[in-house]
Specification:
With about 325 residues, the chain is an alpha/beta fold. It folds into 2 domains: about 190 residues, Thiolase/Chalcone synthase (Peroxisomal Thiolase, Chain A, domain 1), CATH 3.40.47.10; about 110 residues, Peroxisomal Thiolase, Chain A, domain 1 (3-Layer(aba) Sandwich). The chain is about 35% helix and about 25% strand. The chain contains 9 helices and 10 strands. A 10-stranded mixed beta sheet has the order 3-2-4-5-1-6-10-9-7-8, with helices on both faces. Strand 9 and strand 10 form a beta hairpin. Helix 1 crosses helix 2 and helix 7 crosses helix 8. The chain is globular and about 60 Å long. About 5% of the residues have low confidence.
């Protein structure tokens, strides 16, 4: 059995459906900014996705008891973000097309590269460990968690902030309509970051939630393969699964069939955050370890898919229960 990974802190933030500003950001953001290593200089956040990601990171580290600012090279970040910057890029390039060099906003330019959000969090919170950015649409946040688990299991880090950040803007929704994949929703956003640490020993959850398995699948049987490999990674049998939480799924029938093939026959709960793309999978993990989800015995399986025949699965053990 590979070592489980301790889930020591969770941070979640979201925007409203009616506007881009972050829910409850005022006082929380002021508190977060007050501890940042800026030498007294004011911090300017360019876009709500920065606010959401920063608040989620700040909350996750605070819950885990990590002193801020962090300093040192022991803690890194693995962040899934893709569609969250498409609106910024679209407006930036439209400005260049319309006005030439004068239309190139120096504030927006850094956000034309996907790793800007992870870099900003690293700078603002003084994280000097390994920084990873994943751009894989719906599964970006899931893949970031998988990379963080691999980093911790291999002993390359003392801790990793892992998850996703999303800002679905009108430009992205319009683009989906153009390629005949309409979203059907309104502009929205969210961020969910988990603070993960190495587990002391296999099979020991230390009274806390632990990620005990992770796997990905691709191609025709992607969902089945991801679930099967995740069970093997955690050294669990299908009957040890207490419930299934769906982060995002392109076809409920495909998921049901994959679970049947693997031998998992337990209640299925659809995450209310399933429309948050990169953030959906980390948010489903966070929901799985919430007190309201702790009544079902056994491990919790989180499953997510994308539109390109890809799937991710993670297994969570809450509070050491078997």
């Amino acid at each position: 059995m590979t070592l489980p990974v301790r889930l020591s802190g969770i941070g979640i933030s979201s925007s409203t459906d009616k506007g881009p500003r972050v829910v409850g950001a005022g006082s929380r953001l002021a508190t977060a900014l007050s501890v940042l290593p800026q030498g007294g200089s004011p911090v300017r956040l360019f876009h709500p996705i920065e606010e959401m990601a920063l608040l989620a990171a700040y909350d996750a580290l605070s819950v885990a008891g990590v002193p801020l600012p962090v300093g040192g090279d022991g803690i890194g970040i693995a962040l899934g973000v893709d569609e969250g910057i498409d609106g910024i890029k679209a407006r930036y390039y439209q400005g260049v097309l319309s006005d030439g060099p004068l239309g190139a906003s120096p504030m927006a330019f850094p956000f034309t590269t996907p790793n800007t959000i992870a870099a900003r969090i690293s700078i603002l919170l003084d994280l000097r460990g390994e920084s990873l950015t994943v751009c894989g649409g719906n599964l970006s946040g899931a893949q970031a968690i998988g990379l963080a688990m691999e980093t911790l299991r291999e002993g390359r880090s003392d801790g990793v902030l892992a998850g996703g950040a999303t800002s679905v803007e009108q430009e992205f929704l319009d683009a989906l309509c153009h390629v005949r994949r309409p979203d059907g929703g309104q502009p929205r956003g969210g961020a969910c970051l988990l603070f993960l640490e190495p587990q002391v020993s296999a099979g020991k959850a230390d009274g806390m939630a632990a990620l005990i398995g992770y796997a990905e699948g691709f191609g025709k049987d992607d969902i089945r393969d991801a679930i099967q490999c995740c069970l093997e990674d955690a050294s669990l049998f299908p009957e040890q699964i207490g419930s299934v939480r769906v982060a995002s799924v392109r076809d409920s029938c495909l998921l049901s069939e994959a679970l049947r093939q693997v031998g998992v026959n337990t209640p299925i709960v659809r995450s209310p955050a399933s429309n948050l793309y990169s953030t959906s999978f980390p948010a489903a993990v966070a929901e799985a370890v919430a007190p309201s989800a702790n009544g079902t015995p056994g491990a919790i399986l989180v499953v997510g898919t994308d539109c390109l025949a890809g799937a991710s699965a993670a297994l969570i053990q809450v509070g050491g229960r078997q």
